[in-house]
Structures are given as C-alpha cells and as structure tokens.
Amino acid sequence: MDNEKTKKKKKSSYITTSESRKITRFNRRITKKLEKKRESASKDPSLYTTKMKDPENVVEFDNVCTYFFTDVGVVKAVDGVNFNIPKCSTVGVVGESGCGKSVTSLSLMQLLQRPMGQTVGGEIRFNKGDGTAYNIVNTPNSVMEKIRGNKISMIFQEPMTSLNPIFKVGKQIDEVIILHNPEMEKEAVKERTLEMLDLVGIANKEGVYDMYPHELSGGMRQRICIAIALACSPTIIIADEPTTALDVTIQAQILDLLRNLKEKLNSSIMLITHDLGVVAGMADYVVVMYAGRIVEKGTAREIFHNPSHPYTIGLMKSKPVVGQKVEELYNIPGNVPNPVSMPNYCYFRDRCEMRCDKCDGAYPPEVKIGDTHIVSCYRYIDKGEVLGQPKSVDVEELINE
Amino acid sequence: MLKYTIKRILYSVLILFFVMFIIYLLMYSLPGGYIQTRAQELASKPNSTKSYQEWLDFLNAQYGMDKGVVQGYFTWLGSAASGNLGDSWVWTLPVTEVFHNTVWYSFILGAVSFVFEIIIAIPLGIKAAKNQYGFTDYFASVFSMICISMPTFFLATLLKYVFAIKLEWFEISGMKSRDYINLSEFGKFLDVAAHFVLPAITLIIISIGGLMRYTRTNMLEVLNSDYIRTARAKGVPEKKVINYHAFRNTLVPLVTTLGGSLPGLFSGALITETLFAIRGIGHASYQSMLQADIPFIMFYLAFLSILTLLGNLISDLLYAVVDPRVRLS
Q1: How far apart are CA B20 and CA A180, in angstroms?
Q2: Closest approach of chain A CAs to the CA of B214, in angstroms?
Q3: Strands (DSSP E) found in B22-85
Q4: Roughly what angle, to the nearest 10 degrees, separates helices B294-322 and B69-81?
Q5: Given CB atoms, is B227 within the 8 Å cutoff of chain A?
Q6: Contact (Cβ atoms closer than 8 angstroms) between residue A200 and residue A257
Q7: What is the pTM for the complete model shown?
Q8: Which helix (H) or strand (E) holds B115?
Q9: What is the C-alpha to C-alpha distance for residues A282 and A291, in angstroms, rounded to an integer?
Q10: 3-class SS at A267?
Q11: Minimal CA separation from A399 to chain B, in Å
C-alpha cells in the first residue's frame, strides 16, 4: 500500500513531454477564446450590466471561479466563492498563504495576470448606485480603467515597492485625481492631494509632496498608498495585507487610520489578512477561506465566539493568547492539497482532527447554522439549512462551448 | 553635483596616466617593431654602409627610443601634454592630421548606426516585452539572436553578395565611385552616402540584437514590479502604463549602457571598415598597429581611454538625471 502511494505521488508531480505539450496547446486555445469573449463584450454594455441581488451590498461575489492556466495544468485558485460586502462595512478575508485571498481581490479589480489568469465562471456584481450593477467578470478593460482607483481602489501589502521610484510622491497622488477628474484645475488637484496627505496623518505635507518615495519610511509610504487609494472617495477599498510588511507599532497606527477613515468616508473595506488579531479589531464580517473555497463566513462575533469549521477552530487555536501559558503553540497538521489536482472530497479532510464517516463523500455543502453564519462542513449538516455546494467550472466544456 | 564631477575628473586623470603607461610599456616591448623592421631593411640594401646593429642604434637614437621605458614615457607624456603629439612613423604625417583625415568617416558611420540602433532596438524590445511569449516576442527574440550570433565578415559578405553583386544597388567596397571628380557637390555627397549604406547596415544589424534583448529584459522586470500594479490599480490606461510609468524606469539601466557606448562612435569599426575598404580610424589604427607605429597608436589609445572615462562619467551623470535615488545633493 505504501508503495502504491509513492507511485501515485510521483505520477501527480511528473509530466511527460507530450503531456506538457498538450497542456500548453490547451491553455493557448482556451485563453485565446476567453480573451476574444471579453473583447466582444466591449461593444455591448448589456453584456456586462446586471442587477444586484440586494441593493444594500456594494459587491456581491457569486460563485466566482478564477483559474490559472499554468504549464503544469489548471490551478483553481478561487473556485466557487460566494460572499457579499455590504455598504459601509468591513469584511475580513482570512486564510493561510495561497488559499486564494489575494486572487479574489484581484478578480474584483481585474488585475489578474492575463492571459494566464482568467475568471472563468460566476459573477462579481459591483453596485453602480443607480439600481444597476457591473458584472466585473465581463467588463472590458476600457470601462474597468474608469472604475479602478475611482470606485474600487486597492492598498497593497508591500509599501516599499508599491510606489514608482522615479516620480515624486505628490505627482503620484495627483495622477489618480487627474485621471478620474479630468475637468479639475491644477491648483485644485494639488489642494486635494495636500488634503489627502493631511487626512492620512502626514505632518509635513508640503515637504512630502515634493519628496521621492525613497526618502520616506515604510509606514509613510503605506500612508501615501492609502492616500492614493482614498483620493477619489471610492465606494470600496481593498486592503491586501496592508500591515504585513510593517513593524508592530506602525501596524497599529495604520489600522487606526483605516478605521477612522472608513467612518469619515463611508466606504466599505475588504480587508485581506492572515492576522486574526487584525480582523478581530477591524471587521464586521469575516470570511474564512481554505484552498480556494470559503469554509466559513459570518459576523466577526460569530466567527470569534463560535468558530464552527474545524479549520477556523484550528486557526483560533494557533493564535497566541496574552496571559495564557502553553508549552508549544498549536499548529494544524499537514499541508494544503496540491492546487493542480484537488481531491473530490472535503479539501480539509486529510488534515482534519474531527473527521467523521460522512467526510468521505463529496465536497460538503454550505450549511446555514445561524442568520448570517454559514459553514461548509458535514458535522453541521443536521443542524441547519443546507444551501448547496460551490460549483466548479469544467474547463474542458468551456472550450467546446 | 559639481564637486562630485570634479572629483570624478581628477580620478580619471590619474587612471589615464597609468593606462597610458601600460600601453606604452606594451608597445615598447613589442617584438619586430617598426624600428627593427626598418633597420633590417636598410642593412640588407646592397649599398648599405652599416651593419644591422649599427642601423638599429642609429634609428633608435633618431626616434628617441634609446632612453628606456620610464624616461621614454615621460618624454612622450611631456610633449603630448604641451600639444605636440609627434608624427606618425607609418603615414609620415603629424598624428593629428592622420586622425583628422580618418576619424570623420568613422564618426559618421558610427553615429548613423548608433541612431538607427536606438530607433529600432528600443521600441522593438518594449514591444516584445509587452507581448511576452506572443508572436512579436518570439519574432524579435529569434531576430535578435540571429543578429547577435552573425559574424561581421559573414554578414558583410552576404550583404555584398545580395545588394552589390545580384541587385547591383550599391558598390561592393570603397568610398567613392570612379567618376567622383566629375560629380557636382550634391552628387559627391550622394555618392559617398551610397557607399556608406552597406557598412552602416552591417553595423546596425550586429549591434541591434544586444540592445533589444537588454531592453526587453529590463522592461519585463519593470512590468512585473509592484509599482506597475499600483499604476494599473489607479486606473492608468495600459498605454500610459507602458510608455510613461514603465519606460521611465526601463530608461535607468539603458542610459548607462548608451552613455558607455560614446567611445564606440569615434573608435571606428575595425572589421567593417576593413571589409568595405573605408579609410576610417579603425582601418588606420589597424595598419598602424601592424607596423608598431608608436606615436599614432599612443595617440589613438589615449584618445579612446579619455572617451571611455568620459563615457563612464556621462552615464553616471545621466543616471542621476533619470533616477532620483542616486541624485546627490
């Protein structure tokens, strides 16, 4: 049996030349097709206009599937993700590295590395505010350029490299304002930039306006990135691990800043992080992702006081608690499954310490165990309303469409 | 900035001093030099009154080569510093005159191919990077690989065969047609220009590949960087992302290489000039080198050393212009 296992393992990671050629050909065909589809949508606005299910939401992710067509096969980075971002609220997206948090946010921005990365299925609805919505998945680039930085903006995790090193900081903030408000006068733009610098807590705003990024510290640069993100008063700000590269004292400052600004500007925040402490302090709703799918979602209170999915429970346990003495910090055993060949049962089964007989079946459906609390686990299948499974997209079918 | 520039120039003078000494030492110890050959020639004449050794001593004294390396070097340096660069032994003309007669052909050839190299290679490199693994990229890569690997003599022969022999558009070599004297002023200009087409094409093709690959690599690196993603996240149109945000950053390493190629404009293209019989500085220096013409070689190499040092200085100064991170206060 052991021998069989190693054989199988070898098979999954080894690709013959003819297989590799087949994959490359397939990838080229499918990406070409998808690109063409998107291009043809640019002529007809009805193809990318839909309606929100709930007009109180800013963004609705509806079974979003974002796949990467790589040389070793199709990587299902995000596979059937469902969640909403309500108006003026903070949604924290949590999970370990490589679970699809960033790809979800990049799908919303349409900043995936194309043509390799494609959102192949589902809908991302972005509220226009007039009753209609954009379906971001089909929105052509020319329209996306008007949304990016204007209605949806993003703060990245690496402030040290996120600013262009050869342009002055002030000019970089000016640029986004001019881009989305071409009618504004030069003086007004500068005034707005200085206002933004003031807002993000930069004391010497006139001086910083004329500085280059390398003259600023990491925390200052992250403030500049936040100023760029806020400059056009967006309806949603995506913060992709905004504090990961900063030291703890600056982290606290940046988080305070984000919290205050959210109240001032009435924007929603999609906060991506693997730091549970950050989520606990900031988020209204929490989405826990594992291997490209959502395993549990609910309000912050529900997730922190009543974690239900074994993965969430494991995450909570592996967090150090002040005042508690432990010999060794808990860690979840095992690794994330290979993203190229995902199993057809629960992705967490092999690492799970609470597995039962039912777990050998298909991927568990979403179970509603509270008004807002949804979990994807067989342990709760009798304890709430069963909502249905996330749907994958069959790429073979996609090509024959 | 001024202080930095002056410091750099002073350093350059010091470097130049030692570089010239090494060159002088090498030229001095070259076996079968000009003087030995002359002495041999004179001694073997039927009515020669002196033996080889006597001729050798006589000529050495005449040319001032009997003082030893160090003293000889300082003598050369002294007269060179006062503006007297001596006469060329091979061309029996003042060194500066030989230089003046030949360098402009090389300069025009170099400048024209330099300009075309930039005009073709940089946009091609950017386009290739933009469509990585697309048709343009593969085409440009294959083309540049051919350019890099093609030996000059082969390419020149190929061009001659196609354009001079088969199509008869240009002449096979030389700088002037046979009826050059009878042409009008403008006709003379056109005639010389026509003779420079093939050598220029040769130079462009062999230099284009490297610069194109360099541009492509740098552009790709910049395009994958975080600040380009930021620019896209700001909603900057793709065209502006490439031509403004990315290109300015690609320029930083490019400027350094281009600044460093300044001496290339004057040094002449030895192989190409020889193949097309263009009497430029490359050709002249080659002839002088063969016959160990110390005054001319010393002058030519000193000139190149100065240009190289100047090129480095210029590229460093340009670096500061395009990249604020190295700007000195």
Answers
A1: 60
A2: 20
A3: none
A4: 60
A5: yes
A6: yes
A7: 0.81
A8: helix B95-130
A9: 24
A10: coil
A11: 21
Q: Quick check: A155 and A238 in contact, CB under 8 A?
A: yes
Cβ of A111 and B325 within 8 Å? no
Which residues between 157 and 186 in chain B have a beta carbon less than 8 angstroms from any beta carbon of chain A?
none
- Does B230 touch chain A if contact means CB atoms closer than 8 Å? yes
Cβ contact B233–A179 (<8 Å): no
CB contact under 8 A, A149 and B248: no
Report the alpha-carbon distance of residue A331 to residue B270 in Å, rounded.
69
Residues of B in contact with A154 (CB under 8 A): 233
Can you give the pLDDT of all 329 residues of chain B as single tens digits? 788 888 888 988 999 999 999 988 888 887 767 777 777 877 777 777 777 788 878 777 777 777 778 888 888 888 888 877 778 877 788 888 888 888 888 888 889 999 999 999 999 999 999 888 888 899 999 999 998 898 888 999 999 899 888 888 888 888 777 777 777 888 888 888 888 889 999 989 988 998 999 999 999 999 989 999 999 999 999 899 999 999 988 988 888 788 777 777 877 788 888 888 888 888 888 888 888 788 888 888 888 888 888 888 888 888 888 888 877 55
State whether A179 and B236 contact (CB < 8 Å): yes
Q: Is A48 on the interface with B (CB under 8 A)?
A: no
CATH for B103-326 is 1.10.3720.10
> How long, in residues, is chain B?
329
Chain B contact present for A175, CB below 8 A: yes
Chain A residues near residue B231 by CB distance under 8 angstroms: 164
Cβ partners under 8 Å of residue A65, min gap 6: A76, A78, A79, A80, A81, A119, A120, A121, A122, A391, A392, A393
Residues of B in contact with A158 (CB under 8 A): 226
Main-chain dihedrals φ then ψ at residue A58, nearest 5 degrees: -90, -45
Instruction: For an interface test with B, give the residue of A42, A139, A162 to mutate (most B CBs within 10 A).
Output: A162
- Model ipTM? 0.86
**What radius of gyration, in Å, describes the C-alpha atoms of chain A?**
22
Residue A283: CB partners within 8 Å, gap ≥ 6? A90, A91, A92, A271, A300
Nearest to B52 by CA among B63, B41, B60: B41
Rounded-to-5 percentages of helix, strand, coil across chain B: 80, 0, 20
A367 DSSP β-pair partners: A375, A386
Distance (Å, whole) CA B45 – CA A394: 95
Amino acid at A78: V
Contact B320, B326 (CB under 8 A): yes
Q: What does the alpha-carbon distance between residue B189 and residue B197 come to, in Å, rounded to a whole number?
A: 13
Which residue spans of chain B are classified as CATH 1.10.3720.10? 103-326
C-alpha separations of B317 from B223, B256, B323, B329 in Å = 25, 9, 10, 13
Instruction: Report helix angle B95-130 to B185-223, nearest 10.
Output: 40
Q: Does B234 touch chain A (CB under 8 A)?
A: yes
Q: Indicate the SS3 state at residue B1.
A: coil
Provide, as residue numbers in chain A, all residues whose Cβ is less than 8 Å from the Cβ of B245: 164, 167
Q: How many Å lie between the alpha carbon of A27 and the closest alpha carbon of chain B? A: 13
Decide if A180 touches B, using CB distance below 8 A. Answer: yes
Residue contact B325–A161, C-beta within 8 A: no
Mutate to test the interface with A, among B223, B225, B228, B230 (most CBs of A within 10 A): B230
Phi, psi torsion values for A26, nearest 5 degrees: -60, -45
The answer to whether A271 touches A83, Cβ cutoff 8 Å, is no
Q: Which two tokens stand for residue A200?
A: 């993000």
